[in-house]
Specification:
heterotrimer, A alpha/beta (about 290), B mainly alpha (about 350), C mainly alpha (about 300), A: alpha/beta, Rossmann fold, six-stranded mixed beta sheet, five-stranded antiparallel beta sheet, 11 strands, about 25% strand, globular, B: about 350 residues, mainly alpha, MetI-like fold, about 75% helix, about 0% strand
Amino acid sequence: MEPILEVENLEISFPTRAGVFEAVRDISFSLGRERLGIVGESGSGKSLTGRSILRLIKPPGILSATKIALHGENLLDFTEKQMRNVRGHRISMVMQDPKFSLNPVMTIGSQIIEAYRLHSKASKKQALKATLEMLDAVMIRDPERVIRAYPHEMSGGMGQRIMIAMMLIPRPEILIADEPTSALDVTVQKEVLEIMDKLVHERGMGLIFISHDLNLVSSFCDRVLIMYGGRIVETCRADRLYEAKHPYTRGLLNSMPHLDNPKTRLEVLKRDDDWANQPSVSGALLMDDTL
Amino acid sequence: MSPFPSFLSATFRILISIVITMIGLLLITFFIGRVMPIDPVLSIVGESASRATYDEAYIRLGLDKPLIVQFFNFLIDVFRGDFGESLLTARPVSQDLIRVFPATLELATVGTIIGVLVGVPLGVIAAVKQGTWFDHVARVVALIGYSMPVFWIGLIGLLVFYGILGWVGGPGRLDIFYVDMIPSVTGMILIDSLLAGDMDIFWNAVSHIMLPAGLLAYYSLAYISRMTRSFMLEQLEQEYITTARVKGLSEHTVVWRHALGNVKVQLVTVIALSYAGLLEGSVLTETIFSWPGIGLYITTALLSADMNAVLGGTIVVGLVFVCLNILADLLYKVFDPRAR
Amino acid sequence: MTHNSETAQNQHNQSLHSWLLSETPTSRRQAKLSVIYHSWLAFKSNPMAMAGLVILVLLLICAAFAPFLTTHDPFEQDLALGLSAPGENGFWLGSDNLGRDIYSRLIYGSRITLYIVTLVAVMAPIAGLFIGTLAGYLGGWLDFVLMRITDIFLAFPRLILALAFVSVLGAGIENAVLAIVLTAWPPYARIARAETLTIRNADFISAVKLQGAGPLRIIVRHIWPLCISSLVIRVTLDMAGIILTAAGLGFLGLGAQPPSPEWGAMISAGRKFILYHWWVATMPGLAIFVVSLAFNLLGDGLRDVLDPKGKS
């Protein structure tokens, strides 16, 4: 499988009064037309990794890498203007909580149309038609009413589906989903994931799925990167996650309940300072990853 | 915590609280005018009045009746628009107020428009460029605005721009030979002259209003730009701003459409308050520029102990204040979809 | 001082500095002083706030040592030397129409400005504190009535209300102060009430109540001290406004009366001569401007240090 995106030696650091804090430390990975999961606890650098692909690290954060290449073109060499043509158009991102990630004073329709018309020469009428179709594709009932509504009138599940519609309408090749279901009710999480999965699959896109939920990632993704302390500590195929060797991954797996192997007491994760100091494992696509 | 029973609708509750505020406002003016002066009659008829005039005024003011009755009568008078007669002009105060109010309104409106047009962009840019020299300059500009006595800077302005440079018209609303040349429709000369199609008068009025309105605008832009900056800083941290950037929008659109779109909601209140503040600031400004508005009317009345005129003017300005506050609340609902 | 003791002094300063900056204080006193010291360092690093502080210290010095700093008697008239330009006839900043030295009058005027500002800055917050804590702590209908009154006063334009008060009380400094206080207390009452509401149900208040303390004792001993800091920030930010209002009243002839060298009244007196003798009105205006700018700079800096989120 050809990689769409290659990231090499990515580092993100924040200068603080007590010296430089390295939030992401020298990680490399690549993405094909697959569903790549990035798992880690909060502070492990997984969200920053996602945002760095779009070059959206807010100052004072500093981003450096050998390359972040989209089809071989290094995004780090792009001007801000070229970058804007990548954002939304070729790589897009869905964020955690639709309550905060949608603009509260703009109608849903105008926000989606804005995203669509930014990257195409469509007329207002065409854009409206495309928006209605897109809302239909994310299973929004009565899209005519929804485009005139404001975000606060939507439930969390609807908000996230609208967010997906908005991010997919310019037909990007890569979607980064940063904890897309963490803020939602358990009952609608599955529905939102299914819609996202279906669209990503139909359009032959690459998906980077960022989550703290190991179970969810292993059942939803093809391949998994496990991050700890700003590094990738382990990478494996999602269906072989139970074979994982790294003590952190093993610890996480063992601290989850299993129906087929019930325990009276779950294990507690024991941390080892060494984990954070070992070099990153490469998350690049390998030949045997071909699915 | 609401002191009203919950079965009352929200609108009704707002209405009640407006009525309470208005009555309170009138109560304060009543106290100032009728209760606090050691002898309210003297303050109306003057020291040299004869015994008969004094007694007549005493009865006419209803001072022989209990306070609560006096207040009630006062309320009735105010609702009928009867503020008594002015000592100075020998006309009903209400007529005087109708004549002078448009001048103040014109001044404060032009001031607010300039203040918003300059203050909002200044605040937005200062927020976007937080910590840069632009931000510091904007801060100093605002602090200077907060610190200058308006009556002093008005004098200096007159000295420099009228006395030395001759760029603007002097005191008053028009040059003397233009006064009363056009029919008064709205009482605002800028509009009346356009209605009459007389461009000479229009430009003359512009040259006169420029300096006082520009000064008031400076005060309002100091306040508006500081508030805009802090609102913007808050909004730029929000997650929907990241969304807008992820979409690939230019920084210009992110700032001016998405962030400012949300700030607009909060700015409405600020602008209404600053408008009200300018109506008040006009008291000293009008004195300096001999601008025949309500501020000049009140101060002139004050200096000649014309209590009816002072109280009438105070009540009108107070009511306008309250109305502007209510308007701000209503506009908030128009701009914020969440409050509808 | 010998060289040796200077070094010792230096070392002493050094250790005091590190003692104050210690991350692991050993006593409550050290922790408290350390917090103050950190705020001071933050404040000191803000050049504009420091400039404000320096100006205000200079103002205090002017007021305290006025007789030693002035070159003339502020009330002494010499009509022959009237309206001398700055630098002429030994008048540093010129003379007014009655031949009085503007410089000396400004120096003495600083006493009046400080007098007004101090009185208002003490009386208005105390009145607000009293009303706000009473309303917040006792609640119920008293809270409702007091807060309605506060709203009504807030709804009134301050300067106009002050004008109306002075017009019936009569012109003069004390009445001007009273009028400003009457219009300035409501925001303090609001702040004090808000603070009280958050403190009212705290555990330590319940503890004091169990020991049998009455409402008055709780308000005075336990709630007031906690409201002080937010009030202080607000007062500093309001100082410039107080100065401007007082000067405005003086300008309109409702504050200090002639021949008092009050700055606002001086501008008013110089107004007639503005076109040909600019300095008469300009100098006192500059004085007002510099002092209120100093208060604004100080208040802005204090807020950044003490209240980083800009709550007040």
